[in-house]
Amino acid sequence: MDIKIEKMSLKNLNEYSRLFASVFNSEPWNDSWTEETAALRIENMINTDTFVGMALYCGGELKGMIWGQKEYYFNGIHFQIQEFCVKQSEQKKGYGKALLDELKSEMTSMGVVNIYLITSRGKSTEGYYRRRGFITSDNMVLMTNAKQG
Length: 149
Prior knowledge:
By secondary structure, the protein is of the alpha+beta class. The chain has one domain: Aminopeptidase (3-Layer(aba) Sandwich). The protein contains 4 helices and 5 strands; from the N terminus they run βααβββαβα. A hairpin with a 2-residue loop joins strand 3 and strand 4. Helix 1 packs across helix 2. The longest helix is centred in the last third of the chain and has 15 residues.
């Protein structure tokens, strides 16, 4: 398997936005992304100075990506994973684990003291992260003023 993980850059924005919209418009999220709205989100994030993102290619084809933002906190640098996806037909092949492991390694080299994320409840989302050592926080809660559903 010819896996290559590289830092995300704007030069590949179109392929990132195609993958992003395809994955997040499917189960379990069922969002309504277009390639254009996905590109706006990704471009906006890449253009911040706290962005760290990685894309995984196999055989020259984009299979997955993970990205987020570093933020400074009283006890050091924290990193929020904001998006993480693997092409639906390529899931359960180890690409996600490879991306997450590479991200954790990069965060360690940057001195990050905490990696956290917000995800949907469920076996394929919350369960995925639990199997990789993440825990549900007892002292934090996600709150929103948006209607659920």
